[in-house]
Amino acid sequence: MAKQASKNKNIFVRHKLAVVAAGTILLVAGSVGVAKRVVSPGEKVVSVIDGDSFKIANDQTIRLLSLNAPEIQYCAGDVAKKALDKKILNKKVILKELKTDRFGRVMAMVYVNGINVNEFMIKNGLGIHLWDTSAQKGIFEKANDFAREHRLGIFSPECYQTEPPKKECSIKGSIVLATKAKEYTMPGCDHYSNVVVEKYRGEDWFCTEKEAKETGYVKSKNCK
């Protein structure tokens, strides 16, 4: 019995050591358990998906906390992806303030060579700062203001427009943040001048109402 117990104990110890050697632990980030590889002093980035997400060596996807970069097909989307690629690809990054969002995605404050990558992306207009409760909230707000004031990236004239590039195509297509509803506003409608076409979010200009409707937009309630 004693020999069997000792044998079982040795098997358990060897199994435990094997798990540690494999470098796998369970890290609770937010409300969802996250399989996370143990790498010291950081996590190696093996691929960059877009301007706000990438994969580490265990194939886990990490999303930059507190910001949203444009989709690749939208204005500044490819630029944001290339910038993040240059900044972190094949490098080791430090992940802090790990959280999971309501979709179960792992989000983190990301550092490379002492630089806060999240702040870098926001300050260069490569991602818009989202409301958050992170320790860096104040810094990110200033970074977002800097990008807006200097008309960088998503706030550039190419991506953030109040005047139509073509005079004959002056119908503004906008997407409501809360509901994702698509609306178009024509010249003469109330608040027309206040509507911004944010091309980095997929919004666009239209030459005719028919064109807007065919793309899934409906007339704004501000238009009588």
SSE-based structural type: alpha+beta
- Overall body shape: elongated
CATH topology of the largest domain: OB fold (Dihydrolipoamide Acetyltransferase, E2P)
Low-pLDDT runs: 2-39
CATH class of the largest domain: Mainly Beta
| SS element count, helices | 5
> What is the residue-averaged pLDDT?
84
Give the biggest beta sheet.
5 strands, mixed, barrel
Order of helices and strands: HEEEEEEHEEEHEHEEEEEHE
Strand content: 25-35%
Instruction: Using the 3D structure, state the CATH architecture of the largest domain.
Output: Beta Barrel
What number of domains? 2
Strand order of the largest sheet: 3-4-5-8-7
Radius of gyration, in angstroms, nearest whole number: 23 Å
Distance between the termini: 88 Å
Binned, the helix content reads: 25-40%
What can you tell me about this protein's structure?
By secondary structure, the protein is of the alpha+beta class. It has 2 domains: 23-155, OB fold (Dihydrolipoamide Acetyltransferase, E2P) (Beta Barrel); 162-219, no CATH class. The chain contains 5 helices and 16 strands. Strands 3-4-5-8-7 form a 5-stranded mixed β-barrel. Strands 15-12-13-16 form a 4-stranded mixed sheet. It is elongated. The N and C termini lie far apart (88 Å).
